[in-house]
Queue: 3 jobs
Job 1
Amino acid sequence: MNLLLLSTALDKIASDDYVAFTFFVGAMAMMAAAAFFFLSMNSFDRKWRTSILVSGLITFIAAVHYWYMRDYWQANAESPTFFRYVDWVLTVPLMCVEFFLILKVAGAKKSLMWRLIFLSVVMLVTGYIGEAVDRDNAWLWGLISGAAYFVIVYDIWLGSAKKLAVKAGGAVLSAHKTLCWFVLVGWAIYPIGYMAGTPGWYEGIFGGLSLDVVYNLGDAINKIGFGLVVYNLATIASNTKSLEETA
Ligand SMILES: *C/C=C(C)/C=C/C=C(C)/C=C/C1=C(C)CCCC1(C)C
C-alpha cells in the first residue's frame, strides 16, 4: 500500500452501492481473519502450525486483493476481474494445500495435492477466459470450468482424498467432511455469480444479481470459514495431545 493510495481522497459510497460496501467490509474481514490466524499460530502443536499459517496466508492474500479491488471499483465502477482472478489463482490452490496438510496424518501424497491444484487452476483459467477474453462463449468456458470443479468435488467426496480421511478418522475425518461441504455448497456460489455477470442462455435466471456481490459473499464464507474449520481441528487435535501427555 503506497503513499499515493493513502493520500487518495476518500470517495463517497452510495447507500445502494452493495458492491462498494461488500468490497469494503470484505477487506476488513479478511484483514481481521488473517491477524487472528497468524497470532494464534504458536498456540498449536507444531504439526498443525503450517495449516494455520496457510489459513492466515489465504485471508491475508485476499485482504490485499480486496484493498485493490475496493479502490478499482471506486475509480472505475467496473468489475476488477483481473485482481479477482489473481487472488483466486493464489488462494484456491492454497485451499487444496489445506486438504493435503490435514490428510498428511493418513499418509497423503504430494501427488494428491498437485492433482487438486492442477484442477483448480484449470477451473480458474477457463473461468477467466470466459469472463475477460472470450465473453461471447462464456457459457462454454463456464462449462469446462464447471467440469474441473466437479472432478475436485468427486475427488474429495468419494475419491482418493475421501479414503485417506476415513483412514485418519476422528477429528480429521469430521474436519474433512466439513471442508467437503464448503466445496460443494460454498464454492457453488461462484458459478451463480458468473452466470449473473456473463452473457448466455442463463441470463434471465440470475440477471438481477450482481456478479461482484455474489463473489464477495462467496469469498467471505469460503476463505474465513475454511480457515476456521482448520483452526477448530488444530484446537481439538492439540488439546487431545496435551491431555494424553498429562495422563
Ligand atoms: C477464495 C476463492 C474461492 C474459494 C474461489 C472459488 C472459485 C470457484 C469455485 C469458481 C468456479 C467457477 C465455476 C465452477 C464455473 C464458472 C467460472 C467460475 C470460475 C466462477
Note: The mean pLDDT is 93.
Job 2
Amino acid sequence: MKTPLIFDASVKGRCAATIPASGVPEASPLPANMTRITDAVLPELSELDVVRHFTNLSRKNFSVDTHFYPLGSCTMKYNIKSCESAAALPGFNGLHPFYTYLPGGSKEISGSLELIYESERLLSEICGMDGFTCQPMAGAHGEYAGIRMIEAYHKSKGNNKKYVIVPDTSHGTNPASAALAGYEVITIPSRPDGEMDIDALKSAITPEAAAIMLTCPNTLGLFETGVREISEIAHSHDALMYYDGANLNAILGKVRPGDIGFDVVHVNVHKTFGTPHGGGGPGAGPVGVKSVLLPYLPLPKIVKEGDGSFSVASEDDKSIGKMAPFFGNFGVLVKAYTYILLLGKEGLIDVAEKAVLNANYIMEKLKPYFDLPYDRRCMHECVFSASAQTKNGVSALDIAKFLIDREIHPPTVYFPLIVKEAMMVEPTETESKETIDRFIEIMIEAAKLTQTDPAVLKNSPVNTPIGRPDETKAARQIDVKMNCGL
Ligand SMILES: *Cc1c(COP(=O)(O)O)cnc(C)c1O
C-alpha cells in the first residue's frame, strides 16, 4: 500500500508535544535579511501519527535485520548488536573531534586514541603487515590511500612508473583508484579456471609497472593460487603488490596477505568486522603496509609515548598527508575493535570457515539447476549464470525480481562483468542452514518455473509498492521533490 506523505496527513493545530512557556526574556530579533519571509511549512501531527508513519515506512525497507541478503561482494551479514552498543557509549559517542587541538586534549581522549592504535596493531597481526592506518573512510578510499603510498615510494626511489596492472576479475574500484592517482591501467585476462593468466602477465609487465592490484578472493569468488609467483614477477620489476581485502571474511585466520608477498592491503571493516555494508552508510577502509611503506602512512598518526599515553602526530614530510577529517569514521572503528575482541582468534577463524562452507554448500546444491561457469571450490561466494534460462526468455534480472517476492534480497546480478547473466551469491557466515536451505529451494523453484511458467518470473515482483521502475528514467530523470508549498 502506498504511504501518503507526512505532509498530506497534517491536521492544522494537531501537536505531538506541549512545550512550556519560555521563562527566558526574548533576545533581540535577527537582522531582517536573515529571517524567513514566510512561515516554515511543517506537518502537524500527533506523536502516534508520527510513530506509525515512520514505522510503516521502515517496514518497506529490505534490510539484513529483516531478510536474507545474499548480495555478492557486499557481505551483507548480520552484525552483532553489542558492537553497536559499544559505539554508542557516551565516552565514544559524545567525543568532540576538536578535542585533540585543545592544550592537553590528547590526554583527555587517550582511551579513544588507544582504541585506534590497538585496532591498527590487531589488523597488522591479522593481515601480516608492519603498520596500519585507520584513516580511510571506505574500501575505495583505502585503495586510493594505498596507491598514493605506492606512488610516494616510487617517487622517493626515482622510479619511472606509469601504470598499474589488474586482472579482469578485479573489483571495479581497483582500476578506478589507480586511474584517480594518475596511473594508466593495464588489464590482464583470466584463464578458463578463473585465475589471472600468469603468462599474459609475464609478457605485459615492464619496469614501468608501479603495482599489481589483486582482489583476493577475486570477483569470481576464487582464491588466486598463483599469488606467490605473481608477487615474485612484480617484485622483480620493483612493482609493489596490492591486496584488495574488502572481503577478508573469506580468509580470516587462514592466510595473511603479508605472508604471501603483498606490500599493501586494505580491509573493509564495514563488511568483515561488525558494521553493516550498504545503504551508503559510514564505513572504514583501514590500510596496512609493509615496512618499506611505513613512512608514507597518512596523517594524523597515533603515537604511543614512553609513559604508555597516546598522542597525535600531525606532521611528517614523507607522509601522503591527510585522507579524512579528524580520525576517519571513528564509530565504525569502535565496532570493528569490539568485534575482533568479542570473537577472538578462534571466532575469527570460524567466520572464514563458515563463510566458505555456506557458499560451497549453495554452489553444490544449485549446480544441477544453473550454469556454473567456474566449477571448482569457491571461497565466500559463488557465481552462477542464468544463460541456460535465457533460452526460455528468463534473465538474471527476472530471477532477481522473483526473489524479492519471496522476501529474499537478490544476489548481485550482471557482475562480475566477465560472466554473462551473472548471479553472484554470498550467503555470509551468519546465516543458518534453515535460511540457506530456503533460499536454495526458492532458486530451484525459479529454475523450474523458467520451464513451466516463465511469465511468473517475467511479471515479478508483484508484492512490492513499485514493480519494475524504468531504471534508465529512475537514474536520468530522478524526481524526489515533493510539492508541499515550500
Ligand atoms: C566493496 C568492495 C570494494 C569497495 O569498498 P567500498 O567501501 O564500497 O568503497 C572494493 N573491493 C571489493 C572486492 C569490494 O567487495
Note: The mean pLDDT is 94.
Job 3
Amino acid sequence: MTTLHFGRNLVSCLRMVGAMKVAPLFLLTCLLGLLVQSPCLLAQKATACEVKGRTADCTHLSLKEVPADLPADITRLDVSHNMLPALPGPSLARYPQLVRLDASFNDIKRLESDMCLALPLLRHLVLRRNEVHLLTEKDVLHCANLTHLDLSSNRLKLLGEPFRPLQRLTRLDVSASGLTSARLGSVPQLWSLKKLFLSGNAIKTIKSNDLSYLSNSSIQTLILSSLPLKTLEPGCFQQIRGLRDLVMDSSSLSPQFIAKLSEELSGTRIASLSLRNIKLVSLTNTTFIGLQDTNVTSLDLSSNSMVSLHNSPFQWLGTLERLCLNENNLKHLTSSSFTGLGNLRVMNLTRALVKSHKSPYPIIDDFSFGPLTRLETLLMDYTAFQGITANLFSGLESLGHLSLSWSSVGLQTVSGKTFASLSRSPLRTLNLTGVDISRLEPGAFSDLGNLTTLLLGYNFISQTLTGEEFRGLASLEELNLYRNRKISLSPLSFVFVPSLRKLILGLALAQNQDFDPSPFQQLRNLSTLDLSNNNIANVMEGLLAGLENLRVLRLQHNNLQRVWKSANPGGPVSFLRGLRSLETLDLDSNGLDEIPVTGLSGLSQLRELGLAGNVLDHLRDSIFDDLDSLRVLRMQRNLITSVPRGVFGPAFRNLSVLRLERNPFDCTCESILWFVNWLNATNASVPQRGSEYICNTPQAYFNKSVDRFNPLSCKDMAPFYALYVANCILVLLFMTTALISHFQGWRIKFHWNVLVNRTLGFAEPDLGEARFEYDAYLIYAPEDSKWVERHLLPLEEDKQYSFFMEDRDSVPGRPQFEAIVEAMRSSRKIVFVVTEKLLSDPCCRMYKAHQAMHQVIEDSRDSVVLVLLEDVPDHRLSRALLIRKGMLKSRCILHWPLQRERIPAFRHKLQVALGSSNAVQ
Ligand SMILES: *[C@@H]1O[C@H](CO)[C@@H](O)[C@H](O)[C@H]1NC(C)=O
Ligand SMILES: *[C@@H]1O[C@H](CO)[C@@H](O)[C@H](O)[C@H]1NC(C)=O
Ligand SMILES: *[C@@H]1O[C@H](CO)[C@@H](O)[C@H](O)[C@H]1NC(C)=O
Ligand SMILES: *[C@@H]1O[C@H](CO)[C@@H](O)[C@H](O)[C@H]1NC(C)=O
Ligand SMILES: *[C@@H]1O[C@H](CO)[C@@H](O)[C@H](O)[C@H]1NC(C)=O
Ligand SMILES: *[C@@H]1O[C@H](CO)[C@@H](O)[C@H](O)[C@H]1NC(C)=O
Ligand SMILES: *[C@@H]1O[C@H](CO)[C@@H](O)[C@H](O)[C@H]1NC(C)=O
C-alpha cells in the first residue's frame, strides 16, 4: 500500500512539475517529500499497479506504455485513464492469459493488428474515449475470439468491413463515435451479435439497406438513442427480423416519425419499444397503427410532455402488457384513453398527471380505466387529480396493487364510498402514504376484503381508532400508520384485523396513551410491532402479553426509563415477558438508566438488541444471561464505564456486530481488562473501534483510545493476586484441618492405626483364649467411675477377674490411642458402661467404640458386653457407639437393676457374659 501511495505521490509530483512552471518552493516541498519517503524509493517498482488475485489495476498512473512488471498470469488488466498512445502486441505478449483489457480514456489512435495475436484469449476489449480513427479489417483480423467490443466515444472512420472477422462478438458499442450512418458493413456479418449500440452518432437517416449487414445476425437489442433521426427509409428494419428490443430514447421524434417507425416495425418480432424523453406531446388514433401486426408487450413513453391521450391511441396494442407513462403532463384521462389495452398488466402513471402552478387540477373521468380488465398493478404515485370519484376505478377487475402515495387527490376523509369502485377488484395492496388523510370513517375500507397491505403513513389522521375504521379487513397483514402523530388507540382498535403481522405505529400516537387494556391482545399473529417515537412513558405488564409470534419490537425514542426503575412503585415492569420469538428489540433513546434483572430474561431468540443513546451506567450481573442468540448489540452513547465479564460475557459469546462506542470508559484493570482482551481476540465487527472507544478515566489514559490500554500493566497485580489466593487457601485448609481433627480426629487416628498394623503385620496370630492379659476392657464415662469402682472392681478380688481400666492401667507416656488398641487386643471382652454421659463424651468414646467394633470384626469375636445403667434408645446407641442391641446376644446386654435385691442376679449375669465364649456362632 505504501508503495502504491508513494507511487501516486511521485507521479502527481512529477506531473505537476511537468505541467507547470513550478515555483522552486513547491519543487522543494516535493523533493523533501520524496526524501522523507526514500526507503520507499528503494522498494519502488517501475509502476504502482494494484494487483489483486489475477486482476491488475493500473488506472490513473499517467502511463505511456503497458507496464512490463505485472504477474504473467493476470486475466484482467485495467489501464484506463492513462496516456497510452497504442496497445502494441509485443508489450502485451507478456500477459497471454488476458481475458479482459480496459484501455478507456487513453490516447490510442489505432488498433495494432498484432494486439489480438498476442492475446489469443481476449474476450472483452474496452477502448472507450480514445482517439481511434481509421479502423480496417486488418486491424482486428486476429480478434475472432472477442465477445465484447466497446469503441464508444472515438472518432471512427470505418474502411472496408472492419467488423467482419468478429464472428463471436455478442456486444458492439460504437456510440458517440461520429458515425453518420448505421451501416457498419455491406455484407452479412456479426453472426453472434446480440446487442448493438449506435447512440449519439450523427445518423439522420436509416436507409433501406443500412442494417442489411445484420440480416444473418442474432441481434435482439438495438440502441438508437440520442440520434438526430429524421427519416426512416422503407424496409429499414425488415432486414433484422429477430429484433426484440428497440431503444430510441432521448431524441426529438415527431408523432409522424413515430407513426412511420411503427409502420417499419410492422411484421417484425419487436417486443419492447422504448421512446422515453423524445419530446412527444401527443398521440393520435393512428400513431401506433403499424404495431398492430406485432406482438409488442412493453411500451415506454415516460419522460415526455404528453398532455392528452384522446381518441384511443393504444387501440392497436392489444398485446401490450406493460405501459409506462410516468413523468408526463397529462391533463385529462377519458374513457377512450386506454381502449384496446385489454391485456395490460402493469401501468405506471407516476407523476403522469401533475398540477402546475396555475393550471387546474387534472381530471380523470369515471370509467377511464374500464378497458383495463386484466390490469394487476397501477402506479399513480405523485399524481394530482381532482378526486376519487364514484366509478374512478370501475372495471379494474384484476387489480391487486394500487399505489397513490404522495398524490394530491383530495382524500382528507376516507369513507366507505371512497374506494367502493374497487369493490370488485381483488386488491391486496393499497398505498395511501402521504395523501393528506385526516380522518378514517367507520368501514372506510370495508369493500376491500382481500387487502393484505394498507399503507397509511405520513398522513394527518387524528382520531381515536375504535376498530370500526378497519372493519372488513379480515385478511389484512400489514398496517402502516407511521408519522400521523395524533392517533389514539382504544382496546378494540384492531379487533377487526386479527391477521395482522406487521403493525407500524411509529411517530403516530398522541401523548399519554394508557394502553390498558392492551389494544394488541387480539393480534396473535403479530410479528412486527413498531411503537417508536411516541414518547410513551407508561406501559403495563400485559401490554404485549400473548404475542408469542412477535419477532421485531421497536420502542426506540420513547420515555420508558421509569418503567424499568427499581424505584418504580410496584417494582420494575417486565413488559417483555413471554416474547419467546423476539429477534429484534430496539430500546434506543429511552432515558433508561437501569435494566432490571428480569428485564430481558427469556429472550433466547433475540438476535439484535438496541440500547443506544440511553444513560446506562452500572449494569447488574446476569441481565444478558438468556440472550443465547445475540448477534448484534448496540449500546453506544451511554454512560458505561466498565465492561465486566459478569455482565457482558453472555452477550458477547457469539456477537457479529458490537456498537459500544462513545461511552466514558474507565481504563483500569478491573473495569476494562477483560473487554480489551475480548476486543483483541474477537472476530466481531466493532465499528469506529479506533476512534470512538475513548478512556475517560483514570487521568493516565484520559482521552486515549481503549486500544492503547496496556493489559500487561495488569500482570503486575498477578503475583499479589496469587499470594492472596494462596493465603486464603492456606487459612481455609488450616481451619478445615482444625475442625476435622477436632470432630473427626479419632477416626483418622483409628484408620491410621488399622493401616499401620496391617501393613506392618501386627495382626496378631490366633493364640486362643490364653493370650488375653485382661478379662475385660472397661469403657465408661469419667462420671461413672464411682459406679465402676463400686460394682465392678470388687469382682476382681472376689472372682479373680482382671479388668483394664484406662485411668488405672494405662502406661503413662505411651500415646493414648496406641495404648487403647493394645489394651483392647489383650482383653477378652470389651465392656461398655452405657450412660447418657458416655454417649455424649465425644472423643475417646468414639475412638474406643470404633476400635472395639474393629476388634470385633477383625477378630470375629463376640466380645462386646453392654452394661446399661440407664435406659437408652437403640438409635442413640447406634449413633454414638455404632452398636445396635440386636447385634449382640441377649446375654451380653445387661441392665443395671433399680431394685437392690436384684443386684446379685445382675452380678451373676455379668459373670456369664464375661465368661461366655468369644467364638461367633
Ligand atoms: C480463441 O481461443 C481459443 C481458446 O479458447 C484458442 O485456442 C484460439 O487460438 C483462439 N483464437 C484466436 C484467433 O486467437
Ligand atoms: C448465417 O449465419 C450462420 C451462423 O449463424 C453461418 O453459418 C452462415 O454461413 C450465415 N449465412 C450467410 C448467408 O451468411
Ligand atoms: C381517428 O379519429 C378521427 C377523428 O378524430 C376519426 O375520424 C377516425 O375515424 C379515427 N380513426 C380510427 C382508426 O379510429
Ligand atoms: C378474495 O379474492 C378471491 C379471488 O381471488 C375471492 O374469491 C374472494 O371472495 C375474495 N375475498 C374477499 C373477502 O373479497
Ligand atoms: C395466524 O397464522 C396462522 C398460520 O399462518 C393462520 O393459520 C391463522 O389463521 C392466523 N390467525 C389469524 C387470526 O389470522
Ligand atoms: C453463532 O451464530 C451463528 C450464526 O447465527 C450460528 O451459526 C452459530 O451456531 C452460533 N454459534 C454459537 C456457538 O452459538
Ligand atoms: C492480542 O492477541 C495476540 C494473539 O492473539 C497477542 O499476541 C497479542 O499480544 C494480544 N495483544 C494484546 C494487546 O493483548
Note: The first strand starts at residue 50 and ends at 52.
